Amino acid sequence: MSGGANLAALLQQATQAHGAGDLGRAEGLYRQVLNADPKQPDALHLLGLLASQAGALDDAEGLIAEALSVKTPFPLAHLHMGNVKYARGDKTAAADHFAKAVAQMPDLVDARVNLASVCMELKRFDEAAEQCRAALAVNPDMALAHYNLGVALSETGRTADAVGHFRRTAELQPGLAEAHGNLGKALADLGRPGEAEPHFRQAIAVNADFALAHYNLANVLQSLKRFGEAIDHYEKALAIDPEFHGARGNLGDALLRAGRHREGLAAARRGNGVIQLGLDEPGGFSIQY
After folding, report:
1. Segment 53-78, tens digit of pLDDT
2. What is the pTM of this model?
3. pLDDT above 90 for 106
4. Longest Cα pair distance anywhere in the chain, in angstroms?
5. What CATH homologous superfamily does 106-208 map to?
6. What is the architecture, at CATH level 2, of domain 1-103?
7. Torsion angle, CA of 56/62/68/70, rounded to 10 degrees?
8. What's the CA angle centered on 265, arms 261 and 268, to 5 degrees?
9. What is the architecture of the domain spanning 228-289?
10. Do the domains spanning 1-103 and 228-289 agree at the CATH topology level?
11. Of 11, 26, 172, 221, whose CA is between 20 and 30 Å from 193?
12. For the range 111-115, what are the long-range contacts, defined as Cβ-Cβ under 8 Å and sequence gap of 24 or more?
């Protein structure tokens, strides 16, 4: 067997061990390849990937950077370098590498979804939406792409368009509480509280400690004038997150509207709220922050 064929066989064994989770054996085989050919780009890249999986981010970055210096295009190496940069807190550099991966391999949906996620954190919502749509063109059933697109659309005021993507995310990944919660929030924002309620309840069924879902459900219940139920869910949100001042203030409002004035005033004060009185509706008061 020639030297090149032997290295190819070693690299294949290494990737098989890596895929099977035998990281120690994979590392040894990658190093055998690199001892014979220190610039072998796939071994450099995959040893860097292995290092990143072990949390050795300095080693991972150095190895993947070296792989990129000797091979181009190399979309998978850019994808994994983007993950390393993100793990190190450098979101701008991560986005740059994900964008290079996408440019070199347009059907690499993991790179597109990662780019979308970083773009949303950087408040680049239109770019995030574009990447999600491109990912869905390749894989229409990618739950994370639907979810991220829904968030990007919501953040840019296109709430009605977001509903379908949150709904599809919940269908594809029913155990994702955030999908149910965001679907409920979108419906509530569209003035459809009756439709929103069961989705908040489903989010809570998936994750009983989801404080924001309890809070949003309570807001919907209060809008439906079901003050007793709203009070219960504001209290549950506060039991989970005692520093949730918005929940405490809204609890005060619900208590006042339920006729429990002493408790309502106390909750409003603890929530740093200012009570405003008015005559525009029965029980005419509100709590402002």
Report:
1. 999 999 999 999 999 999 999 999 99
2. 0.83
3. yes
4. 92
5. Tetratricopeptide repeat domain (1.25.40.10)
6. Alpha Horseshoe (1.25)
7. -130
8. 135
9. Alpha Horseshoe (1.25)
10. yes
11. 172
12. 111/75, 111/78, 111/79, 111/82, 112/145, 113/142, 113/144, 113/145, 113/148, 114/79, 114/82, 114/83, 114/86, 115/82
Say whether pLDDT at 225 is over 60: yes
Which ranges constitute the DSSP H helices of 125-210?
Answer: 125-138, 143-155, 159-172, 177-189, 193-206
- Identify the burial level of 229 via C-beta atoms within 10 angstroms of its C-beta, where 0-12 means exposed, 13-18 middle and 19 or more buried: middle
Q: Give yes or no for a contact between 129 and 149, defined as CB atoms under 8 angstroms apart.
A: yes
In which residue are the tokens 């709203």 written? Answer: 230
Report d(CA 32, CA 27) in Å as an integer: 9
Q: Are 287 and 274 in contact (CB under 8 A)?
A: yes
Strand partners, 285: 277
| Residue 119, token pair as written in the block | 């773009």
Can you spell out the DSSP letters for 107-143? T-HHHHHHHHHHHHHTT-HHHHHHHHHHHHHH-TT-H
